[in-house]
Automatic annotation (TrEMBL):
<dbReference type="GO" id="GO:0030145">
    <property type="term" value="F:manganese ion binding"/>
</dbReference>
<protein>
    <recommendedName>
        <fullName>protein-tyrosine-phosphatase</fullName>
        <ecNumber>3.1.3.48</ecNumber>
    </recommendedName>
</protein>
<comment type="similarity">
    <text>Belongs to the metallo-dependent hydrolases superfamily. CpsB/CapC family.</text>
</comment>
<dbReference type="GO" id="GO:0004725">
    <property type="term" value="F:protein tyrosine phosphatase activity"/>
</dbReference>
<dbReference type="Pfam" id="PF19567">
    <property type="entry name" value="CpsB_CapC"/>
</dbReference>
<dbReference type="InterPro" id="IPR016195">
    <property type="entry name" value="Pol/histidinol_Pase-like"/>
</dbReference>
<dbReference type="InterPro" id="IPR016667">
    <property type="entry name" value="Caps_polysacc_synth_CpsB/CapC"/>
</dbReference>
<keyword id="KW-0378">Hydrolase</keyword>
Length: 267
C-alpha cells in the first residue's frame, strides 16, 4: 500500500515532536503493509511556514535514519497545503511541493469555516495544470451544508482523499457517516492515514482498505490504496487511471441529517 498523507517528519508541524515517535510510526506503517509514505507536513501561512527545500532536507535526514534502523519504508515528498492567495504562484515556483513532483497535491480546506469562493479556487488550480487532492472532507464541520460543492468539484476534476480512520470509526460516527457516503456516491479517489502520532493517530491503512472492500469490492479497494496512489507518484494523467465507481443505488439522508441528530456544533 501507498500512504499519500502522513505527518511523520519530526519537529516540523503538529506531527511528532521527537524522532523516536517518527520511527515508531514508520515501524507501524511497515507492519500494516505500507511500503511508501508521502511526508506531508502542513503549509499553513502564519502557523506552519514550511517550504519545499526545508521539507526535502527533513526527508533526507529521516531517510538516512530509516536506513540505519533497517526500516524498509520509502519516503516521497509532499505537503498538506492550505488555501492562500498566492498558492498557484507558489506551486508553479516549486516552493510548495506537490506529491513526488507530480501535478497532484494535497489541498486541505479549513476545518470549521467554509472558505469563500472555494470552487473558484479549485477551478483556478485545475486550469493552472494542478490536480488538488482535497483532504478529509468527511471531517469538516461544514460538509453537511456544502456537500453538493464537493460533488461539483469532483465533477470538474478535483480529487478527494478520505482519512482511513474515518471509514473505520476512529473519528466518531459523523465522520464515518460522511466517509461511507462519499465512498458510496463514487467520489473518493484515495484513502490515506493522515497519521500524526504512533499512539494517538497511528498510520493504519489496511483496516480501511478492508472496510472499503466490503462496500465497493476488492478491486476498488486496491485502487484506493495502491493503483491511484501509484499513478499520482508517477504523474499519470487522471484520465488514464481507474475511473471512480458508479454511485451505489439507494437514497441517503440529505442536508441537515447530522444537524437533526446532534445539533449544529457536533463534530
Amino acid at each position: 500500500m501507498i500512504d499519500l498523507h502522513c505527518h511523520i517528519l519530526p519537529g516540523i508541524d503538529d506531527g511528532p515532536s521527537e524522532l523516536a515517535v517518527s520511527l515508531a510510526m514508520a515501524r507501524i506503517a511497515v507492519a500494516d503493509g505500507i511500503r511508501v509514505t508521502a511526508c506531508t507536513p502542513h503549509i499553513y501561512p502564519g502557523l506552519y511556514e514550511n517550504e519545499a527545500d526545508g521539507i526535502r532536507a527533513a526527508i533526507t535526514a529521516f531517510r538516512q535514519v530509516l536506513a540505519e534502523e533497517g526500516i524498509a519504508l520509502e519516503l516521497v515528498e509532499g505537503a498538506d497545503t492550505h488555501l492562500a492567495p498566492d498558492l498557484v504562484a507558489r506551486l508553479k515556483a516549486g516552493s510548495v511541493p506537490t506529491l513526488n513532483g507530480s501535478r497532484y497535491f494535497l489541498f486541505e480546506p479549513p476545518h470549521h469555516v467554509a472558505p469563500p469562493r472555494l470552487e473558484d479556487s479549485v477551478f483556478s488550480l485545475l486550469t493552472a495544470g494542478f490536480v488538488p487532492v482535497i483532504t478529509h472532507p468527511e471531517r469538516l464541520t461544514w460538509i453537511d451544508d456544502h456537500y453538493p460543492a464537493f460533488q461539483r468539484m469532483v465533477a470538474s476534476g478535483a480529487w478527494i482523499q478520505l482519512t482511513a480512520g474515518s471509514l473505520t470509526g476512529r473519528f466518531g460516527r459523523r465522520p464515518q457517516y460522511w466517509a461511507e457516503r462519499i465512498l458510496d456516491d463514487g467520489l473518493c479517489h484515495i484513502l490515506a492515514t493522515d497519521s500524526h502520532h504512533s499512539e494517538r493517530r497511528p498510520p493504519f491503512l489496511a483496516e480501511a482498505r478492508e472496510a472499503a472492500a466490503r462496500r465497493l469490492g476488492a478491486d476498488e479497494a486496491v485502487h484506493l490504496v495502491l493503483t491511484r496512489p501509484r499513478g499520482i507518484l508517477d504523474n499519470v494523467s487522471p484520465g488514464a487511471l481507474p475511473a471512480l465507481p458508479a454511485a451505489k443505488p439507494g437514497a441517503r439522508p440529505g442536508k441537515g441529517f447530522w444537524r437533526t441528530l446532534f445539533g449544529p456544533r457536533h463534530s
